[in-house]
Amino acid sequence: METEVAYELLSALRVYKDGRVERLRGTATVPPSLDEKTGVQSKDLAISPDSAVSARLYIPRAALGSPLRLPILVYFHGGRFINYSARSPTYHSYLNTLVAEANVVAVSVDYRRAPEHPLPVAYDDSWIALKWVASHSAGNCPEEWLNSHANLEKVFLAGDSAGANIIHNMSIRLGEEKPEGIEVPGAIMVHPYFWGNEPLPLETTEPEKRSLVERSWNIVRKTDIGCDDPLINPTMDPRLSGLGCNRVLICVAEKDVLRHRGWHYKEVLSKSGWAGVAEVMDAPGEDHAFHLFNPTCDNAVNLMKKMVSFIKEGK
């Protein structure tokens, strides 16, 4: 086995010269289950065998015996497009709680990851997942949880970090070519993975911190324009005003290097001519993805309450 390293990304990834990829975090998985604490049932399924897109579905067990239809939450996990999956213990636990609190059916998307599958593969997989959800609008598709228990007129998008980046790009695509059969009233972007070649006025100028973000992006996306690519710098996208949802919640954290990009996104989006409403929730004293790794702290509890409120206001 080849042991010589071609390149690595601190604490995230090591790629060997023979092409072998070693992920340094987020590799643990847990099976779907009935979570006794929350009463949420989950299962795994293949969305598209042709493209290897899969998902983990969640539903409050009480909903299985009810005629009521629940909103759908389509969730995209984070990890710089490199690490973690829908089967990661961290995301499984968080989705169990979120589904129970918000009383929704959730589809946690397992998109293919870089560097084996560089962008735009993750976007294409995520779009396939959204179209698969929409295909259940007639109630005669293979997934019974969606056929019988989901309200496709209330589809919310949510995700963190790279997942929040995916949400932005799915929202742009929804504005251009919305799949028939679904309505997407709102999107929740938690600590969105946005950046740019030039620092914002209050953003860090430390070369080491900036280069880590830039190297991460260059690994997952082969481009000559770096972090001014509209896929990671939405302010460079002339289609921004066509965002395909009516409400956006942007969650940021005070110590997160990406924090100012979230605020800037809100400002530019609000001035773009987009007809919707955007708001920002800032978590004092917290860093990137704190809510996943310390879900019982006060700020994480407040974030969960805000997300639940955002979804319920959209009902």
Quick synopsis:
With 315 residues, the chain is of the alpha/beta class. It contains 8 helices and 12 strands.
Describe this structure in words.
By secondary structure, the protein is of the alpha/beta class. Helices cover 31% and strands 23% of the residues. It is built from eight helices and twelve strands. It has helices at 89-102, 121-134, 144-149, 162-177, 207-220, 259-271, 290-293, 298-313; strands at 5-9, 13-16, 21-23, 34-35, 40-48, 53-60, 70-76, 105-110, 150-160, 186-190, 247-253, 277-283. The strands form two sheets. The chain has a nine-stranded mixed sheet with strand order 4-5-6-8-7-9-10-11-12, sandwiched between helices. It has a three-stranded antiparallel sheet with strand order 1-2-3. Strand 10 (186-190), helix 5 (207-220) and strand 11 (247-253) form a beta-alpha-beta unit. Helix 2 packs across helix 4. The radius of gyration is 19 Å and the shape is globular. The mean pLDDT is 96.
Order of helical and strand elements: EEEEEEEHEHHEHEHEHEHH
Report the average pLDDT across residues: 96
**Biggest sheet, in brief?**
9 strands, mixed
Helix content: 25-40%
The computed structural class is: alpha/beta
